[in-house]
Amino acid sequence: MTVHARDLTAPARSAAPGGTAMAVGAARWGGRSTLGTRPGVRKIRTSPSDASRGSVMHGTARGRDEPVAVVSMACRLPGAGDPEGLWELLAEGRDAVGPFPPGRWDLGSIYDPDPRALGTTYAREGGFVEDIDAFDPHFFGITAREAAAMDPQQRLLLETAWEALERAGTVPARLAGGETGVYLGMLGSDYLSGLSLDQFNGHVGTGSALSVASGRVSFILGLVGPAMTVDTACSSSLLAVHLAAAALRAGECDQALVGGVTVMTTPQTFVEFSRLRALSPTGRCRSFADGADGSAFSEGVVVVLLKRLSDARRDGDEVLAVLRGTAVNHDGRSRALLAPNGTSQEKVIRRALELSALAPGDIDYLEAHATGTMVGDPTEARALARVFRDDRPPGRPLHLGCVKSNIGHTQAASGLAALAKVVLSLRHERLPRTLHAERPTRRVRWEDSGLRLVQEPLPWPRGERTRRAGVSSFGIGGTNVHVIVEEAPLPEPAARAGAEGAAGAGSPDGPWLFVVSARDDAGLERQAARLAAHVAKDETARLPDVAYTLARCRSHFERRAVVAAAGRDTLLSALEALADGRPDPALVPARKHLKGKLAFVFPELPPDTGAGADPAARPEAFAAALARCDEAIRRRTGRSVVPVLRGEEEASGPLADAARFALGCALDAWWRSLGVRPDAVAGYGAGRITAAHVAGALTLDEAAALVTGHGDGREAPDIPGVPELLGERFRYFVEMGTGPSPVQADADAAGTAVHVVGSSLDRDGMLRRLAHLVAAGISPDWSEAMPAGSRVALPTYAFERGRYWMSPTPMVPAATPEAG
C-alpha cells in the first residue's frame, strides 16, 4: 500500500502553450466595485472642466466608463523590434523607411517612375520588417508543412502575442481555459495568392483566413474568451481596441490580447495606389506638411494586453496607460467612396470625449491619422480645429503629431502603432517630433486653429493635471475610430518587494536561483545569451528581482538550467557558460525530464550532526518543526535531541532514532517551505515512522512514542519502500538526509531511470539541491520558493526561426491598356 502525503497534489509541470481548452462559467458580474463606486451606481469622474458642464451618465459600476488599462505591449515595426526600439527611433527622430528589401520583389520589373505605366509602382521605398519568411513552428506545436502554408501575418501575431504576455509577466500556460479575448485588426492577405489549385495542401485555407488568425491565437493558448478578426482597412487595429475595451467593460472577457498586423508579400498595394496617384514617390508620409505628396506604405505588427484597471491593480500589474474612452462611426455617404469626411471625424472625436466625460481642453496631444495626402490631412486638421479651438486654455494648444512620419503607414497595424507611440510618450514624458513637416501645410489656418504641429521634441511631464491624448484612425472604407489615452495612475504606496524573507530562495544577500528555460538545448543557449547581454547592460536591475521574474513570471519548458548566484559577476559567468555549452561552478545544467511522480524518502542513517549549531542558518520552517519534535520527545524521555544533533552528545538506541526522526521532520518542513510537496512518502527502517508521521498516518505524540520505545507494542503503519514506488511510476526522489541511501541502488536493480536529490543542512546547499530538482523537471510552488520580489523587464523568448515559405506560381501578367 502506498501512503500518500496529506493535502498534496502532484508537482506542477510546465505545460505547452497549446492544449485542450476547457469551458468556463459565464461572465462574472458584481462582487468588485470600480474605484470605490458601489455596484449599480455610476460615479462620474471629473476633470477640471467637468464641473461646469453638469454631465450626467447612467450605468453600472462595470459599465462603459470602466477604465481599461494597457498592461503590456510588443511589436515588430520598421526600424524597431520591440517597444524600446520604437521609442529610441522616435526619440532620435529617425526615419525607418528604406528601399524594398532585396529578394522580396524584382524591382526591375515592377518599378517605373511614370505613374501611367500599368503593372508597376512609381515608388521604390517603404517601411519593412526583417525576415517575414522566418518562424518558429516547433515552439507552437505547428508542423513545418502547415507553417509554410500560414500567412506570415498569422505567424507574426503568434510570436508577438507571446511576447506581449511575457512582457506582462504572465505565464501563457496559466491562461488556458480562461476568459481572455483575442481581437485582431488585419487585412486580407496576398500570400499564396498565385498558387495553382494543385498546390493546395489542406493548410492553405486556414493559413490565409482572417477568421483563423484570431482563432489560432486562442487555440494555441487555450483561450475561451471572444476571438474575432476585423477588417476596416487602416482603422482595423484601433477598432479592435474599441471592441476589446467594450467587451472588458461588459464583462465578456477578463483580459484581451489586441493586435494589428500587415505584411506585404507582394507589391500589390504599391501598384494599386500608384494607379490612384495616391502614393508618395519617395515613400514618406509627410504628415500635415506643405510638401505632402501621398501616402507611403509599410508593414508591421503590434499587440497590446488590456485589462480593466481595477483588475490590473488587483493583480499587481504594471499599468502603462489607461484607455479612458473609445468611439467609432462611419463616413456615411460622402462625396466619394474613398474621400474623407471631416464631419464624421469631428463627430467620432466628440463622441469619445463625451463617453470619457471630458472636455476638449482636457486633451494635451493628438496622434493623428495623417497619411500625408493633400486632401486627407487638411480635412483631418480642420475637423480637429472645429472640436478643439474654442475650448482650449490660453497658451495651451492641442499638440499634433503622427508616427507615420517615422515608419510609414502600417495599414491594419497603424492604429496600434499610433497608440504605442502615445503610451511611450506618456511614460517617457516627452513628445517626439513629427518628421518631414518643417513647413506645415498652407491648406490649414494654423494660427487660429487651436492646433500646433510638434516640429521639435517637447517635454510632457507628469504634473498636477492628468495628461491625456487622443488617437485617431480612419479606414479607407469610411470607418473612423478615436481612442482617448490617459497617463497611468501612480502606483499605490507599498513596500518594495525584495528578497528579504524569501525563505527558500536564498538569504537577503543571496544566492538566488535564476531559472533559464527553453524548448530545446539550442534554445536554452540562445536564451542564456540574451539574458546575459541584458544583465550586463542593465546594471540597475536587482538580482533578487531578476530571479523572481524568471521563476514566477516566465514559462518553464522541457529544458531548464539553473544558476545559483549571489553576485552579478557569478551570474554573468554562468550564463555565458550556458550560452557557450560550457560547465560552470554556479550552473546546474538541464537534465532529462522523466515522466513520473515525486516521493520523499526517509532513510535509516546515523543522525546528522551540526543541524542545530546555528539556528539563524536554518529557515523558520525547519527550526519550528525541530522544536515541536524535540518537545514531544522530551515529554517521553526527559531528554532533548538537540545536543545530539549539534554533535555535543553521542546517542544510540531510542535517542538516536528520536534524533533521526526530529531531523527528518525538520527537513521535510524545509522542503515544503521551498514549495516542494511529494505525491507519496517512503521509508527505510526507523525512517518509516517519520514517513508515517509526515503523511498524516501518525500524530506527533504517537510517532514520538514509537521512536523512543514508548509505543506500548504499537507498530508503525505499513509504509512503502522505494521498490514499490518504482512500480507505481515514481521517478523523482528527495532523500530526507545528507548521506547516501539505497534509493539509487534500488532503482538500478529495477532497471529504472530516476532522479535522486539529497538534502543539506545549510541554506546554500539546500538551494543547490532545489536547483537540481528544477533542472530535472520538477516545478515547485514558486510563490513559496520565491515569495518576495518585483517583476522587472527581461528579454522575451528567443525563438528559433527558420525559413518557411511556399512559392506561388508566377502571377498573371498585367493587363494591357487596350484590355482595360
From TrEMBL:
InterPro entries for this protein? Ac_transferase_dom_sf (IPR001227), Acyl_transferase_dom (IPR014043), Acyl_Trfase/lysoPLipase (IPR016035), Ketoacyl_synth_AS (IPR018201), Ketoacyl_synth_C (IPR014031), Ketoacyl_synth_N (IPR014030), PKS_assoc (IPR032821), PKS_Beta-ketoAc_synthase_dom (IPR020841)
Q: What are the entry keywords?
A: Phosphopantetheine, Phosphoprotein, Transferase
Q: One matching Pfam family, short form?
A: Acyl_transf_1
The entry's protein name is Type I polyketide synthase
Region span, Disordered = 27-61
SMART domains named among the record's database cross-references: PKS_AT, PKS_KS
Q: Does the keyword Metal-binding apply?
A: no
Top-level taxon: Bacteria
Domain (Ketosynthase family 3 (KS3)) ranges: 65-487
